[in-house]
Amino acid sequence: MFFGTEYKNFEEEGLVEMIVNMSEKATEEQIAHVVERIREAGYQPHLTRGTERTIVAAVGSGGRRHEIEALSAAPGVEAVVPIAQPFKLVSRQIKPERSVIDVAGVRIGGDAVVVIAGPCSVESHEQLLTTAIAVKKAGASMLRGGAYKPRTSPYDFQGLGIEALKILREVREQTGLPVVTEVMSTEDVDVICEHADMLQVGARNMQNFALLRRLAMIDKPVLLKRGPSATVKEWLLAAEYLLSGGNSRVVLCERGIKTFETETRNTMDLAAVALVRELSHLPVIADPSHGTGKQSLIAAVSRAAVAIGADGLIVEVHPCPERALSDGPQSLDFAGFEKVMRGLCEPLRQLAPSTPEGFALGAQA
Ligand code: PEP
Ligand code: MN
Cα–Cα distance between 49 and 233 in angstroms, integer? Predict the structure, then answer.
C-alpha cells in the first residue's frame, strides 16, 4: 500500500479512523443509528452521501475502535474498513465520486476545463480591465490578480493591497468574471472575502496552519497551491486542514516544485496531477506560468496538463509583459494567451501504427 508505513504508525497509536460503508438499501434510520454509535464511541461522524450509497466516516483520535469495528453487524451496514491514508476527508475512500466546486457559478471539477487567467499582480484599473476583457474573449471563465504579493525580496513590488481588491471587485462587476486572489495573512481574510469569489493560498503558505485553520471557517472556496518543496501527501494534509475545519470547497493547484533543474523556474510535476486525482476527490488545476517561468513553454505544458487530467489551468496574462511589476518573463500578452487557448482545442497527436507501413504481418511466413 502506498502509505503503508505511516499507516502502521497511526494504527499503533490508535489514531486510525474508519469508514462505515452503508449498503445501497440502508434506510435513514439505519444511517442515523450509525452516526449516533460513532459519536458514542468517541469519534466525530462525517457523512458523505454518494449517488448510490452513503459513507459514514469515524474521524478523530482516542475513540474506541472496537466499537466501530462491531458496527459491521449493525443493520444497513455493508462493511467497516480502516482509512488507508493519513489524510481522510480529502480521500477518495471517503468520497469516491469527484467533487465539483462552484465558484460564483463557474464549476471546477466537472466535464469542462476551466481556465483562470489574469495578471500576476493587479497594477491599475485599466490594466486589469483590459486583461479581463481580452482573456474572457479568448475563452477564460475566471480572472486572477494578486493584491497581496509574496515576494522573495522585501524590495520588490508587494502589491496594491486594498486598492487592488477594489479594482478586482469593480472589474468582476464590469465583466462578470469571478475573481481569485491570494491571501497571505489571517488579518486580511475578512476584507478579501468581501471582494473576491475565491481565496488563493500561495505556494509559500501551503503549510501556514494558522491561515488554513482560519480559511476552514469561511464561506468561500479556496485554491490551495502546492508548496515548492511539499510532497503530495503534505499537500493533501494541508487540504485536510480545510475540510476538517469545515470548508469542503477546495481546489488544488500544482504549480511546480523545486528540483536540481535550473533552466525552468520550477519543475512542473504533472504526474502529481494524475496521482492527486487517484487519491483525492478534490478538483486539481495546473499553473504552467509558475510551473515553468517561461512564456514559450506555457502552451505545451497547458496541453499536457489538460491531457493528464487537470480540471483547469491558471495562467498569467499581462497587456505588456515587459512592463509587468511582477512575473513578466512568464506572463503572456493577449495574442499569446489566445494562441494557448486555441492550442487547447486542437487534438493530441496521432499514434504511430504498430507496424511499419507496407509491412504485412505474417508476410514472411
Ligand atoms: C501567484 O499566483 O502569483 C503566485 C505567487 O503563485 P505561487 O504561490 O504558486 O508562487
Ligand atoms: Mn506570479
Answer: 25
CA 292 – ligand 1 centroid, Å: 12
The burial of 228, by beta-carbon neighbours within 10 Å (0-12 exposed, 13-18 middle, 19 or more buried), is given as middle
CA distance 138 to 69: 54
Q: Are 2 and 62 in contact (CB under 8 A)?
A: no
CB distance 290 to ligand 1 below 6 Å: yes
- Give the tens place of pLDDT for each residue, 262-304: 999 999 999 999 999 999 999 999 999 999 999 999 999 999 9
* Separation of CA 58 and ligand 1 centre (Å): 35
Beta carbon of 226 within 6 Å of any ligand 1 atom: no
264-259-227-162 Cα dihedral, nearest 10 degrees: -30
- How many other CB atoms are there within 10 angstroms of residue 95's CB atom? 22
Does residue 8 have a pLDDT over 50? no
Beta bridge partners of 313: 115, 286
1 pLDDT higher than 80 = no
134-155 burial string, b = 16+ CB within 10 Å, else e?
A: bbbebbbbbbbbbbbbeeeeee
Q: Quote the cell numbers at residue 134.
A: 481580452
The protein residue whose alpha carbon is closest to atom 4 in ligand 1 is 202
Ligand at shortest distance from the CA of 150: 1
Binned at pLDDT 50, 70 and 90, residue 61 comes out as confident
In short, whether 75's Cβ falls inside 6 Å of ligand 1 is no
Q: What are the angstrom distances between the C-alpha of 267 and each of 143, 259, 310?
A: 25, 6, 16
Q: Is 146 in the pocket of ligand 1 (CB under 6 A)?
A: yes
